[in-house]
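Everyone, describe these structure tokens:
***
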Amino acid sequence: MTVTDPSRGEGRKSGPTGRPSGDPWGVRRAENLLTSLQGILSARIVVSPLGEVEEVHVLMQGSTPAKQVVRNVESALLAHLGLRVDHRKISVAQTAEVRPIDALDQEAVREQAIHRGVLFERVEFRTAGTGGNKLGMMVVLKVGDRELTGEAEAVDNARARMQAAARATAAALEQVMERGTPELEGVQVIEAFGRRYVFAGVLVAEGRGTAVLTGTCELTETPEQAAVLAVLDATNRWLNSVR
């Protein structure tokens, strides 16, 4: 069948690509029509120099059978444009799931976060003990979208709170360790280069023995937060190496 301009009822000359010059028949309109059909990602219509439809190519996504897609294409062209196309001229290709670029970007961010290791989220406090002379502490960490929590109690003074924050961090890390249990060797404040740092040591299983991992964090916020970050500094590289 020769494709014509419905508004003038006549054929048109073709351009060098075999598509009607200026697209008077509306090949692009037909392609846009096909891409509006459910599951069709793109469409391409090839016409002869005489304006006859030679090939219709569609790329689809989803589980719709190819024969059904061909029938949908035939029906859409006939109903909307009055164009009857032989089903043998319609080819269908299927593709796997295609996700928007912003979704891919978000996934890349999550993957990068996982490669960076375990991240600090927050420290929460609560009163503990019958006389209210102890402080309960919960450390919240994140691995990708997963939250890890660890808890510890301590007498309410600066050094004990720092120790409790480090122990709670080790308890949270146990949830992502495939073997062994991390144990706090110790945590303390040291001075170097005119600055104060929290220095932490963590015992982990290494082969048939144990290894001491060490990490530091400059004391710029609270001692509790610095203790958490020092423990993560000690363990993140080791966790990534054994995954």
